[in-house]
Each structure stands twice: as C-alpha cells, then as structure tokens.
Amino acid sequence: MALLEVSNLGIAFGGLQAVAQLDLSIEKGHLYGLIGPNGAGKTTVFNMLTGVYKPTEGNIILDGKDITGQNPELISKSGIARTFQNIRLFNDMTVLDNVKVGLHNQIRYNMWTGILRLPAYKEKEHEMNREAMKLLKIFDLDKEADYKASQLPYGKQRKLEIARALATNPKLLLLDEPAAGMNPNETEELMHTIHSVRDQFGVAILLIEHDMNFVMGICEEITVLDYGRVIARGDGKAIRNNPKVIAAYLGGD
Amino acid sequence: MQFLSYLINGISLGSVYALIALGYTMVYGIAKMLNFAHGDVIMIGSYVVFFAFGSAGMNPVLAIVLSMVVCTVLGVTIERVAYRPLREAPSLAVLITAIGVSYLLQQVAQLAWTSNPKSFTSVVSGLKPISLFGGQLTISAETVVTIIACIVIMVVLIWFVNNTPAGHAMLAVSEDRGAAQLMGVNVNATISLTFAIGSALAAVAGALLCSSYPTLQPTTGAMPGIKAFVAAVFGGIGSIPGAFLGGILLGIIENLSKAYISTQLSDAIVFLVLVVVLIVKPTGLLGKKVNVKV
Amino acid sequence: ACGSSASTDTASSSEAASTSTAATAEAAGEGSGAYTGTPIKIGGIGPVTGGAAIYGQAVKNAEELAVKEINAANGSDVFEWKFEDDEHDAEKSVNAYNTLKDWGLQVLAGPVTTTPSIAVAAETANDNLFMMTPSASAPAVIESGDNVFQICFTDPNQGVASADYIAENKLGTKVGIIYDSSDAYSSGIYEKFKAEAAAKNLEIVTAEAFTADNKSDLSTQVAKCQQAGADLVFLPIYYQEASQILIAANKSGYAPVFFGCDGMDGILTIEGFDTSLAEGLMLLTPFAADAQDEKTQAFVSAYKEAYGDTPNQFAADAYDVVYAIYQAAVAGGINGDMDASDVCDALKAQFTSMTFDGLTGDGMTWDASGAVSKAPKAVVIKDGAYAAM
Amino acid sequence: MLKNMKKSTKSNVITLGIVVGFYVLIQILSAAGALTNSFSGQLVPICAYVIMAVSLNLTVGMLGELSLGHAGFMSVGAFSGTLVYVVMSENAPQPLALLLAFVVGGAVAGLFGVLVGIPVLRLSGDYLAIVTLAFGEIVKNVMNACYLGVDSHGLHFSLKDSASLNLEVDGKVLINGAMGITGIKKASTFTIGIVLVIITLLVILNLVNSRAGRAIKAIRDNEIAARSVGVPITKYKLMAFVTSAVFAGVAGVLYALNYSSLVAKKFDYNTSILILVFVVLGGIGNLRGSVIAAAVLTVLPELLRSMNDYRMLIYAIVLIVVMIFNQSPEMIALRKRLTARFRKEDAEGKGAKDKEKKGVA
Amino acid sequence: MGEMLSVKNINVYYGSIHAIKDVSFHVNEGEIVTLIGANGAGKTTTMHAISGLLKLQSGEIDYCGQTISKMEAHKIIRLGLAQVPEGRRVFSGLTVQQNLQMGAYTRRDGKEAIQNDFDMVFDLLPRLKERRNQPAGTLSGGEQQMLAMGRALMCKPKMLLLDEPSMGLSPLLVKEIFKIIRQVNRNGVTVLLVEQNAKMALEIANRAYVLETGTIKMEGEATELANNIEVRKAYLGCE
Ligand SMILES: Nc1ncnc2c1ncn2[C@@H]1O[C@H](COP(=O)(O)OP(=O)(O)OP(=O)(O)O)[C@@H](O)[C@H]1O
Ligand SMILES: Nc1ncnc2c1ncn2[C@@H]1O[C@H](COP(=O)(O)OP(=O)(O)OP(=O)(O)O)[C@@H](O)[C@H]1O
Ligand SMILES: CC(C)C[C@H](N)C(=O)O
Ligand SMILES: [Mg+2]
Ligand SMILES: [Mg+2]
C-alpha cells in the first residue's frame, strides 16, 4: 500500500464543486506534482489533506490510517506537514523559534519542566536548538536565526516555512508554490534543496507549482487538475505533451 | 397585556441602545477601532441640547442640529488629534487612547458643568404618547421617535455605504487601508467622515437617550456607551442592521429579565444571554463570518 | 449609652462649648477668639471626581465654608484644612488618607461614602486618629474602632425609622420598594426597612432592585410596583434616580405615595427637574435647605454665595462635622501642637459626653460606638418646597 | 543562537533585578524614615497591579487575545481568598491561613479561567473581548447580590438579601451583598507582595521562554500555521488563559487583604481597563514594561494630587500624550533613528532587534 | 518622448534599516521599464516609495513634471499612476465586482465609460466574470492576482506600477498577463514592471535596471541586459 491513498475526494463550497472525485496515491519518498490552472482546486486539495477543510466526500488514508476529516493538529501528528500559498509564518517570533515551534511534537517536555526549569528543560532546549539549527542550515537560514520572521525577504520566508514544516518530522510534505517569488537561480537552488531533503529525510513530497521547469525538473509523477477534476496524470514528459494540459494550462507556443 | 408593556419598555430602552450602537458600529466597521469615547460624545451632545433647548428655550430640532454640529466638530477633532497619529500602531494602542479621551471628556464636563445632575426635558415633550387598548398600554412619544429615528438612520446608512462613492471608500478602507489608498481613496478623510457621521449620530442619540431617561451627568454616557458596544457586538460588530437588532434585543432582554426573573441579577442575566449567543454564533447575530482562505 | 452617662464635669464644659459655637455661628466675623493655639490640621476626603462627585463636592464646599467661618469668627486660625479626592474608591481613599497624614493630619472629617470610609476607618483606628464622617452611613463604618464617629443617621436607623413612621401614620398599606442593590447605603436601609415593616405588619408587595449599571431605565421597576398594586413606594435611594422614578411613574399614570430617606434630599434642586412631580413626596431627612430657622438660612445663603448651588444634606452634615469638632476642640482644650493620638483621645472624651446643636439636628449626642442620636424630621414636599409633617 | 539564549535570560535577570532593587531601595528608605505615608501605603496595591498587569500580558501580549474582564478573576480570587482567610485566621496559625488564602484565591480564579476559557476557544478578537467584559460584569453583579452567612447550622447562602439567609442570632454574615466583606484584618505586606511579584514573573517568564510559551505565541501569530505543525490550540489557549486567571486571583487576595473591606464594585470594567492600560502602555508582550507601567501609573494619580480638581483631567491628558508618544510609528521611527545615531555600529545588521515591523506590510 | 517618471537619489528606511540607498532612475512616456533584482533587493520598497505608501528619507520623485515625493498616496493615484501591489492586496470582504468598482474610484468619466472598462477587464480575464459575485478573499491565489490586475486596469491609468504581476499564475496565464501588459502599453500606458520572471520581463521591456541590496547596479536597454553575462548568470538562470 502506498503512503498516501486518496480516493474519490471531493468538496463543494456552496454551489461550487471545487474538487471532485480525486484519486491520488503517493509512495514513500516520492516527489509528486500537482498542477493545474488557477482556481483548479489544488490548494483546496492541500486543505483537505491537512484537515483545514472537511471533505464532503471521499477518503484520505495515510500509512494505512484513515485520517479523513480529522483536525489539523492530529493530522500533523500523523505525519503530514505543509507550507502555505500565502506565507504563514509566526511573524513576531524569531526564525529559530519558528522552527522550534515546528519541533513541538518531536521534542517534548511539559509545562512544569519549563516553569520550574527542571534539568530536563536545559537538555531538551539544547536538543531543540541543535535540531532547529540543523534544519536552518539546510535552507541557508542559519545566519538569520535571530531575525524576526517578518524581516526576511519573501524568498527566505518561503524557505523558512519549509524548514518549519520539516521540523514536524513528516512522512508527507506538502509544498504550495514553494518557488513563487523566486528568481530562476533561487528556484534552481530550491530544487537541489528539495531533492536533498527527500534523500536525507526519506519524506514523500507533494508540491503545487506553476513554474514548469521546476515541476518537470523535480517531480517523478504529476497530476493535473482542472475545475476540480483530474485531467491528466503521468511523468513530466507525458504531461508536457498532453493536449488537454496544453489547452487548459500550459498554452501552446 | 402586562407582558406587552414590559416588552415596550424593553423596546424603548433597546431603541436607545440601537441608536448609540449604530454610531459605534459605524466607526468600528470602518476605522476598525473601538471608540470607547463614543458614550462621552453622547454626553457632551446631551449637554448641548440641555442648554440650548432646556435652558435657552431653543426650538428642539434646532437644538439637536446645533448639538450635531458641536459633536461632529468634537468627534472629528478627537480623531484628528488623538487617533490619527496612531493610525499605523497596534489597534490596542488606539483603544487605550480612546479610553483616555473618554476620561478627558468626563473631566471636562465635570469642570464645566459640575457633577450635579440635570433633569433633561424631553425634546419631544410636545408630542402625545400613543395609547392602545383604551389606555391600558401606552407607548411614549420618545419611544416612537427613537425607533423611527433608528430605522431611518439605519436605512440611510446602509444606502449611503453601499451606493455612494464615499460609502465605497469606507468599505475599502475597512478592508485594507494601503490598498484603498492605491485606489485613490483618501484614507484620512474617509475616517474623518466616518467619525463625523458617528458623532452626529451620537448627538441624536444623546438627545433621545436623555429624553427617555432624563438624568444628565458627566457620567451619563459611560454605561449606555458600554451597553451599546455590547449590543453592537451582539448584533455582529460592523453590521449596521446588526447594531439595530442587537440594540433592540439587548433592551428587551434586559427589561424582560427584570420583569420576570430578577431585578437584582438582570445585568448578569443580560450578559449571560450574550455569552451564550456568542458561543452559538461566534460572530454575533448578523455578523459576517470572516472567511480566511488558507 | 449617650450623653447622660458622662461625668458632670465634661457635661458642663460641653454646655459651655455649645453656647460658644452658637455664638460664633451667629456673630460670625466678630473675632471672639475662643481658640488661641496652633491651628489644628483637619482633613477631608471624598469623591470630587467620578460618578459620586456630587456628594464629595458638597462636603468639600461645606467643610471649606465652615473652616473659613470658624477661622474668621475666631480671629486667629483654628483649623488648617485640606481636602483630598478619593473617587469613591477604597484604595484611593486610603491613599488620600496617607497623603493627608504626610501633610500632618490631626483630625479627619470624612470620608464621604461608605465603602471608602470602612477602609479608612480601619487605618485611623490603627493610628488612633479621630475620624468623623459626615455622610458614610453604614454601621460597619463605626465598628472599626472607638475613634470613628458619624454625624449622619445609620442606615438601619433610617430603615427602621421609615417603617415606623409609615406604619404609625398609616401612609400606606401595600408597600413597594425600589432600591439600588449595588449600593451599600441603599441595600442597607432596604434590609432593615423590610425587617421592621414585617414587625409593624406593613405588607411589602414587591421589592425591586436596580444597579449602578442599569439605572438609566427604571420603568420596569416602576411598572412592577404598579402591577403589584403598591400604594406606597419606598425609595431608599439618591435623588437622581428618584427623579427618574417620579418621571417614569408620571408617564405611566401611577401615583402612589413616594417615601424617601435622606438621600432624597436635593431632588428639588435638580436643574431642569419638574418639581411638580415631586409634589407629595415624603422623606425623612435631618436637613431641609428651605427650612426657616436662622441657622439654616445663614448657611444656605453663605453656601449659595460661595459656590452658586443650593447645599444638600451632605453639605449640611459636613458643616456640622466641622463645627462639632470645633466645639469639642475648644471644650477639650485641644491644641494643634498635640499629636494626633492625643487629639483623638481628647475628642473621643468630648464627643461621648457633649451635646451639639447643628443644622441637621438639635441636641445631638454620641455614644461610645460613635453613632449619633438625633431626631429625624419627616417632611413632605408641598408647592415645590419642604413642609414639616 | 547562544546569544539568543543569553539575550532572553539577560532580559529576565534585568526585570527581576528591577523588582528586587526596588524592594531593597524601599527597605533602605523605610529604615531611614524617608518614606512618606502616601508612598508606603501604595506599595501593596502596586504589587497587586504589577501581578495583574504581568498576568494580563500573558493573555493580551502572548496569546494575543483582548480581555476586558481581567478584574473579574481578581474579584473571584479576592473574595474566595479573603473568605478563607477570615474563616481560617480564627483557628489556624496566621501564616498558614494566609498561604491557604492565596492558594484558594488562585485556584478559584483558575477554575473560572477554565469556565471562561470555553468561549475563548470559539471566539476571537472583539467578540472574545465582549465575553470577557461580560464575565467581569457578571461576577460584579452576582457578587453584589451575594449574601453568605454562617451560624451553628453551617453556611447559608442567598442571592436576595441577608434576611433571606435566615441566620440564627449567633450567626455572622460573611459576605453582605454590595457591602461585601468587612472587618478584614489587614494581612498583606510589601514583602509578601514582592515575593508574589517575583513568583509571578518567574513563572510567566519561564513559561513564555519554554516550549509551551512558544506554542502560545505561535497561536497568536498564526493560528492556522500553528495547527498545521501540530500545536494543540485548545490546550495552549486554555493554559494561557488559566495561568493568567490564577495570578489575577492571587493578586486579588493580595489586594483584598490590604484593606479592611472588600466590595465587588472595585473589580469592575474600569479596573479591567486600567490593567489593560498598564499592559498596552508598558508594551504589548513586554513583561518588564508591564511591571514599570503598572507601578508608575498607580503612583501617578497620587503624584498629581496637588493639582486638585484638575487631577484626573491631567491624568487623562498624560495618558493620551504618552500613548501617542510611545506608539505612534512616526515617534517610534524618530526615536529609533536617534538611538541608531548614537549606536551606529550596534545598529548595523541587527535588524532582528527592531520590534516594529509595521511599515506597509 | 519626455521623462514621465524620474526618481532622484531616493533613500528609504524601515526603522533603522536602510532599504533603498541613493537610487535614481527614470521612465520615459510610453516605455516599459523593468526593475530586476534578487529577493530583498528593494524592488517592492521602491514601488511603494513611488506610489506614496512609504515615505522617503531623502531624494525626490517627479511624475509628469510634478514632484510627488511629498504627496499622499491617494493624490498620486489621481494623477493616473496605478499600482498592482505585491501580495495582491484585494479587498477580501468585497466581491470581485466591488473590487473592480473600487479600481474605478477616482474616475469621473461617466458610468458608461466605466461599464466599458468592466467589459474590457472581463474580456481579458474571463475567470473574473465567472466569479464576479464571490468575495475576493475566497478566490484562489491566481484568481486574486488576476483581480489585482483587473482592478488596476479599471483605474484607466497613465502609468502602471506592476509588482510581480505573474506571481502564482499558471504558465498559460503568465503568457496572457504579459500579453495584456504589452497591449495596455500599446494603448498608451507607461509601465514600470518588477518581475521575478526576468526573462519574460526583459523580453517585453524597453529598458531595465538591476537592483542589488538597495542600489542600482546596472542599467541599459532590455535586450542589452538580457545578453549581459552577469545578468544572465544572476537572474536568468543561464550559465
Ligand atoms: N472557502 C472558500 N469559499 C468559496 N470558494 C472557495 C473557497 N476556497 C476556495 N474556493 C474556490 O475554489 C476554487 C479552487 O481554489 P484553490 O485555492 O484550491 O485553487 P488553486 O488550484 O490552488 O489555484 P491557484 O493556482 O490560483 O492557487 C477557486 O475557484 C476558489 O475561488
Ligand atoms: N516592513 C519591513 N520592515 C523591515 N524591513 C523590511 C520591511 N519590508 C522590507 N524590509 C526589508 O527591506 C529590504 C527590501 O525589501 P523589498 O520587499 O523591497 O525587496 P524586494 O526586492 O521586493 O524582494 P522580493 O523579491 O522578495 O519581493 C529587505 O531586506 C527586507 O528584509
Ligand atoms: C454621600 C452619600 C452617598 C453617602 C452614603 N450615605 C453612603 O454611606 O455611602
Ligand atoms: Mg492555490
Ligand atoms: Mg517584492
């Protein structure tokens, strides 16, 4: 069985069927792309996978466990982490603390340990700092650890979001337009980073992106949505040449 | 019959709350600030009417117009001096300044007019109360006028906001000031206009509040101000019909709980109902649910 | 225990003092020079800002007036006086007291309201500093210590007296009550009234409360009294709210006998109030500003001249406090050089033994608990003025 | 990163140092007899308000929720703690009674914190503010109508009047409605106050700089993101709210036991607002600021006594002016530029130090 | 062709952060000029400085022969200088239609003309027509981006400031947007464009400036820069 099994997933907002009859299956450690025109329902799929929206139909099974309709906290614990299309950082907290919040369920000690500064506090905090810095280093953010998140430029904010998501030690990482607002060089760099993250953490990655070089360069399999429905599926090459995809999404040259 | 009379008392009180709440919600809805000095602007307005109409014998309509002018100038000045410098500051900062302004107005009123209570002569004392069921039930002229004023103001406000350029500017400012500026909206002028309208409404509210409940003191505006704020939230803050509905309901709940449960605990009951309603309907009765797209 | 049990020695001196007071009051400005020592530092505390400011202002004015008169009449200064604001708040009142102590306070004429007074009384008891409140009427105020005195009636006293008066004069058979349950004074009177009414077989048909937070609309309370068929409504509340009740009752055509306590005094002075609505209103009060006696008239005109307002009973109380202290100080040989504790002991001895004639009563005496004994006057409002009953 | 650790620790040490320094200073002044009655009389209330402000800052600054009913928690704490003290001090040693009073006051307030916490989980922003305001008003109204007495048959309770308690003649009314509790033996001292301030600061500072504190701040900054990384919102919102309530309760006991009487009216909306003023003026989320603002603003009206009738007028003006001076972005930018000029090298590259990120975000 | 916009030695601060350092450049009437630069270079800051959302510390900005650097943002817009801000900034509580209406807020040329432009925008961006009554806040990211563009067009500007107008758009729409920009420009609107997609930006632009950590590092004809090795390396992702 695959890591993520989505079957017949759908949601409607009022009269609008934003996503319908979506099937998706992602293997452990896979790099998977989800693309489609604006408003196709990609972000909505992410929102259902992470419990932000409750699907009106269908099932989501992660690692053999049905997580359909669970709340985001639980889903995070089950092993799905994400970034957001509109960046959502903890703006008034430092870069380091942003990642440490991501470690919330990984390195734990209870409230009293913190308040009474029991020995475990120091130990665990050190561990957290170590882990967090390790992650920041991967994304080349270690020098900005003390900055407030809001003071980072856009591109770095995107990276910080990914670092934070990774801190939750997910089995599946969802990235919503990670390269938006980055120039080609930065995008290139990000591709490498994502590859190495996958290799290092063995995490499956599902990503949404409109930058075709990025998607084609990185994804092993791609699903294309249009008006909430799957219109194509396959590897980069197949997608690039699919006439439906060209018509709805890529546009002919 | 008795029930009806309590109900009418409630509506009467509620219509006053509603009138005040309209001013609150207007300012809140556009400027996104809780203007805790609103009640005190009402108090100042009432004093103006008291002296112009009660003491100097001016025509009541003229007295109210005068009071509206005074309150508008006052409201716009307060906004200019005390709130505008904090436009970009956290909203709590403005809240605290508003509280400072509230203290200030009360102190000024006390120094100017002493703390001795004044008994307000109803501005509609010329009108006859409505008598129903052969006199078993009377609805005072104040109540009738207040309700009519409320409805008229509500309708005009809704029309204004939705159908005039200035109204559109208000909507835009309430959503995103920076973006509104980029549309060519003069944010400061729009907020000033909002305060002008809110304060003019405060003058009307003051005259009618004191006509129904005639004791006038420097603290007169404080409690009705808070209650009206509660009413505005109850109805869904920022929503004009919500303010009306919230005000009326608050008045009714307050009076019915006095009538049938306990006069001693009626405040607690009113607030309890409010809490329960908000738990069930977290954005108030007519409040928009804010859709955060993730 | 009242004045009668005091030793003859002090009793005679108090007599002497009381005549001298009367003399000063009458012949103000002549410079009788009864007091020759260092001025005594007397302080007042009360709310001069905030919701209860009317009471504090009245007390402040009257104290100032009394001190000025006494100093002028004496030729040399008897009192040095200072007044501090407490915003009707216990914490602020204690702060005010401490500020006065820093100034050198020897005698306290205050605070004005009950809640602050209880807090301050405990402090004065600790310091053994003489305190006399003009208007804080709860019994708990004087329970704090034997150094604390009241010049006003206590609340229970008024509640009982009102019930007795109503019963004896058969003013009504079905009694409704409207009181302020968030106010110590009002609920204090209400409770005792209720108990006494039961003893006197008065039927209480309904007791309705309001609070400081919902007092702008009292129409429902009035309607409930009307509904219950009350032919007399007892109003142990202050005059602002009472005026609202009268207006509301008038609107709904309800005309029972209204009966109030000392807090009702002032209703005729509300600017803009249609005094015809108060016609027939009865109240027990120790003071009426339009009483015809010379003392009251002199006081009222002096007050009006100085402050532009008609004084209410709290002003009269405060005026009496200063004069009573003056009388006691002269009789007890008190001097501003003494320390506050000695002053206190001397004043205690005087007050528990002397008799004082003031604006708010003749022949006032105090027992060791600090409570005053004086006769309440019942008045009725007739033709827009108080008339004795 | 180490620097970061140090920075927060250093800041905490400074904050506590200020408190201890203040205590020592007062002791010295007092020994030298240089302390006025007026000032020494305010020491305990100052401590109580400091605790209130610091605890409210946990809700407002850290959790990011507006509370207009903090005095309500103070009230329930004050009444329950005082009741315990009044009853216990008759038959238990003084320190034990006192300790118990604080524990019970804090616990009862905490319990109410849980109760109010439930709507907190569903509401936000001004709707929550209204619920907390409502809570404060409900407490005030109910306590004003609350009569509690004790006689040989045990406790009697009524929401009507003391006569309805039906006490025996030997009975004693403990809480007498609007009159509240009277005849309290004054038990609070400045030393107790300072100890409580320090405990409060330690607990809240430690909490804020721990895993739980980060979770709370994360919820404040972005609830959706916090959820997405698995922070249980319910738990941490409640934790912040209840902790804040507990300390308000303790402050209530400290405050109440400083006076001979206790009335519900004291803990009204105005008091809640006053505490909020301390928090905002001291800086939202800045605990040291809360300490200083609470102390200064408590003393200020007393310092203005010489202004007589204009006292509160001036207080109001000071409040407005300070607020504008402190919070207006122009003023902040101006101040920053001035300080930057003085510490040029220091300012370099330390963007992280700048608190304001407002601009045109 | 005269200078329509000239920016002279401007300095902008965020608190004590010096974000824009002595930047000067100009845009001639009828041109498309693009600003390229890495993340955090100060492109958005420059845009905000021009439109009046941020205050200058020093320097001057002239537009159509008029100094606008001391002018308030809303007055600048009235001079025909519209901006599509970074991050879209749509009025999320208002519907698509109302958002577009706000775009035409300053226009006084009659209902009909405005109605025409409505049709024009709906024509260019048909998705907006589909969603005309949906609250803008619930639109997808790309839809919001279209709305921001449409809203600026409704203002009938003389000059458009575009801050990453293609961000979050599908490849098809990116092409579409660039087409629209070109078309608008042909209709007489001067454009100042900030883009991460430097390649396409340089394709349609006449001239370009390269911004690096708050200072202009290079300037020149667009085609020239597009062939510059450094630029190609740094911004176009070509070795
Ligand atoms: N809460 C909501 N209420 C109403 N409609 C919604 C809501 N959320 C999304 N939609 C609609 O559902 C559709 C799908 O939106 P979604 O955000 O998933 O698109 P997307 O594929 O991510 O597009 P983009 O690439 O532009 O981000 C859109 O048309 C959007 O307007
Ligand atoms: N509100 C702010 N407060 C403090 N610093 C800021 C603020 N906004 C931007 N900055 C800083 O100013 C510099 C320029 O930022 P700006 O947003 O103008 O860059 P940009 O070129 O538009 O980048 P991007 O491509 O990421 O949009 C950056 O270093 C950024 O960190
Ligand atoms: C002046 C009055 C309001 C005082 C009142 N008798 C009290 O005890 O509080
Ligand atoms: Mg999307
Ligand atoms: Mg930018």
TrEMBL record, chain A:
GO biological process: D-alanine transmembrane transport; L-alanine transport; L-isoleucine import across plasma membrane; L-valine import across plasma membrane
Cross-referenced Pfam families: ABC_tran (PF00005), BCA_ABC_TP_C (PF12399)
Keywords: ATP-binding, Nucleotide-binding, Transport
UniProt cross-references to SMART domains, sorted A to Z: AAA
UniProt entry tagged with the keyword ATP-binding: yes
Any one Gene Ontology cellular component term annotated for this protein: plasma membrane
Signal peptide range in chain numbering: none
Family matches, as InterPro entries: AAA+_ATPase, ABC_AA/LPS_Transport, ABC_transporter-like_ATP-bd, BCA_ABC_TP_C, P-loop_NTPase
A single MF term (Gene Ontology): L-valine transmembrane transporter activity
Domain ABC transporter: 4-252
Protein name: Branched-chain amino acid transport system ATP-binding protein
Organism, as annotated: Gemmiger formicilis
Lineage summary: Bacteria, Bacillati, Bacillota, Clostridia, Eubacteriales
Automatic annotation (TrEMBL), chain B:
Recorded topology in the membrane: Multi-pass membrane protein
Subcellular location, record wording: Cell membrane
GO CC terms: plasma membrane
Pfam families xref list: BPD_transp_2 (PF02653)
UniProt keyword Protease present: no
Transmembrane segments: 6-27, 60-78, 90-113, 133-161, 182-209, 229-253, 265-284
MF-aspect GO terms: L-isoleucine transmembrane transporter activity; L-leucine transmembrane transporter activity; L-phenylalanine transmembrane transporter activity; L-valine transmembrane transporter activity
Keywords: Amino-acid transport, Cell inner membrane, Cell membrane, Membrane, Transmembrane, Transmembrane helix, Transport
InterPro entries attached to this UniProt entry: ABC_transp_permease, BCAA_transport_permease
Statement: the UniProt record of this protein carries the keyword Cell inner membrane: yes
One BP annotation, GO: D-alanine transmembrane transport
Family: Belongs to the binding-protein-dependent transport system permease family. LivHM subfamily.
Protein name: Branched-chain amino acid transport system permease protein
Organism of derivation: Gemmiger formicilis
Lineage: Bacteria, Bacillati, Bacillota, Clostridia, Eubacteriales
TrEMBL record, chain D:
Top-level taxon in the UniProt lineage: Bacteria
Membrane topology according to the record: Multi-pass membrane protein
Keywords, comma-separated and alphabetical: Cell membrane, Membrane, Transmembrane, Transmembrane helix
Major subcellular site: membrane
Sequence intervals crossing the membrane: 12-36, 42-64, 71-88, 94-118, 189-208, 238-257, 269-300, 312-334
GO cellular component, one term: plasma membrane
Compartments, as annotated in UniProt: Cell membrane
InterPro entries on file: ABC_transp_permease (IPR001851), LivM-like (IPR043428)
Molecular function terms, GO-annotated: branched-chain amino acid transmembrane transporter activity
PANTHER family per UniProt: HIGH-AFFINITY BRANCHED-CHAIN AMINO ACID TRANSPORT PROTEIN BRAE (PTHR30482:SF10), HIGH-AFFINITY BRANCHED-CHAIN AMINO ACID TRANSPORT SYSTEM PERMEASE (PTHR30482)
Protein name: Branched-chain amino acid transport system permease protein
Automatic annotation (TrEMBL), chain E:
UniProt keyword terms in alphabetical order: Amino-acid transport, ATP-binding, Nucleotide-binding, Transport
GO molecular function terms listed in the Swiss-Prot or TrEMBL record: ATP binding; ATP hydrolysis activity; branched-chain amino acid transmembrane transporter activity
One matching Pfam family: ABC_tran
Residue ranges of domain ABC transporter in the record: 5-238
Domain of life: Bacteria
InterPro entries on file: AAA+_ATPase, ABC_branched_ATPase_LivF/BraG, ABC_transporter-like_ATP-bd, ABC_transporter-like_CS, BCAA_Transport_ATP-bd_LivF, P-loop_NTPase
BP-aspect Gene Ontology terms: L-amino acid transport
Family named by the database record: Belongs to the ABC transporter superfamily.
Protein's UniProt name: Branched-chain amino acid transport system ATP-binding protein
Taxonomic lineage of the native organism: Bacteria, Bacillati, Bacillota, Clostridia, Eubacteriales
